[in-house]
Design brief:
alpha+beta; 31% helix; globular
Length: 194
């Protein structure tokens, strides 16, 4: 085995180790979200493409969980770990891995089409007034993404922190999940959970 193939194997092994850690983080997020009455909507976990024309997307740039709450069928929520920009779009800058919590409000849509859901998970990267300091930002979907507004999403909210600021379950709860739950409650009504 040459040095370059050894390096490639080490890189792939390191990526597998990272994905195991991300899976643990997302499983922990599932439990914390459930405390607020948010249930995993789909078993999805990765972004990407298998198309030959999209090699940039073969390796996932973000890992996600999608949630719903029977008390708020018009809100779809996400916890997302973003490792790099999901496209080679120069508009998006990811200086370091992030963890985000975000939600879409679907206005008058009673049940959003499932194929529209996962694509919203990394949208914090394009959010108006984006910051990565844990502050919730609101994006006017009609103004920022008019095509997506036609799909029914009227409001998008998100918060993010550098991934390395989450070192324990307590950090995840206090810095991501609880602020998310409070933000949804303040904007869309009380939850039956906490």
């Amino acid at each position: 085995m040459t040095e370059s193939t050894q390096n490639l194997k080490r890189a792939i092994d390191a990526l597998r180790d990272v994905t195991k850690q991300i899976a643990l983080l997302l499983k922990t997020a599932d439990g914390l979200m459930e405390e607020h009455n948010w249930m995993v909507r789909r078993g999805n976990c990765i972004s990407g493409s298998t198309g030959i024309e999209s090699p940039f997307e073969w390796i996932p740039s973000y890992f996600l969980r999608t949630y719903s709450n029977s008390d708020s069928p018009q809100v779809t929520a996400y916890v997302c770990v973003i490792l790099s920009a999901p496209s080679d779009d120069d508009e998006v800058v990811v200086k370091e891995p992030l963890i985000t919590a975000c939600w879409c409000y679907w206005g008058n849509v009673k049940k959003p089409r499932s194929e529209l859901l996962a694509g919203w998970a990394p949208s914090h990267l394009w959010a108006e007034g984006r910051n990565d300091d844990g502050t919730i930002v609101r994006t006017d979907v009609k103004k920022k993404w008019p095509k997506d507004y036609k799909s029914g999403v009227t409001e998008f909210y998100s918060l993010a922190l550098p991934l390395d600021q989450i070192t324990s379950e307590d950090d995840l709860k206090a810095k991501i999940i609880d602020p998310f739950a409070t933000g949804v409650e303040e904007r869309h009504g009380k939850r039956k959970g906490k």
